[in-house]
Design brief:
By secondary structure, this protein is of the alpha+beta class. The protein folds into two domains: 57 residues, no CATH class; 81 residues. It is built from one helix and eight strands, in the order E-E-H-E-E-E-E-E-E. The strands form three sheets. It has a three-stranded antiparallel β-sheet with strand order 3-4-7, with no helix packed on it. Strands 6-5-8 form a three-stranded antiparallel β-sheet, with no helix packed on it. Strands 1-2 form a two-stranded antiparallel ribbon. The protein starts with 13 loop residues before the first strand and ends with a strand.
């Protein structure tokens, strides 16, 4: 006579203990080794406060790293030079950009019409890397102003 076949029991769902990572039942947060006194499980507000604290700490670390990375960059000043009709339509402008900071960096310069620098057309131009304490001159192509040369002004942005 053969013994009746037994169906293996379906394993209960588990997740990792919040402290050590051992598998625990789905309805508890800590294993018996991490919670030997059987204290009440952590409240949802405690878990959310821990997550919020981690996010705040991460933002503070990013702010400090950003400040360290940007210190010594700029200020930048720019001057518009010759403006001529470009070869493929648009305009070609010669820009001179100076970096008064202690670190080499590139920046964005806003080119506008000289007669209306705040409310008129404008286009951003990214500069090549400007060495610390030096100036560079380069040519940029513009499409926002059409192809008729006109007086343009430049303002370079500093971090």
């Amino acid at each position: 006579m053969t013994a009746p076949a037994t169906v293996p029991a379906k394993p209960e769902p588990t997740h990792a203990c919040m402290r050590c990572g051992r598998p625990v039942a789905i309805d508890v947060a800590l294993c018996d080794d991490c919670n030997p006194l059987g204290l009440k499980q952590p409240a949802a507000t405690q878990v959310h406060a821990l997550a919020a604290g981690g996010i705040v700490l991460f933002v503070v670390i990013l702010a400090v790293l950003g400040r360290l990375g940007l210190s010594g960059v700029g200020p930048f000043t720019g001057q518009a030079g010759d403006v001529v009709a470009g070869s493929g339509g648009g305009l070609s402008i010669t820009l001179s950009v100076s970096n008064a900071g202690s670190k080499a960096a590139s920046t964005n310069c806003r080119v506008t019409e000289a007669r209306n620098p705040t409310g008129g057309l404008g286009e951003l131009v990214q500069t090549p890397i400007v060495p610390a304490g030096e100036s560079i001159t380069f040519t940029a192509s513009l499409t926002a102003f059409g192809n008729v040369p006109r007086a343009l002004a430049v303002e370079c942005l500093s971090p």
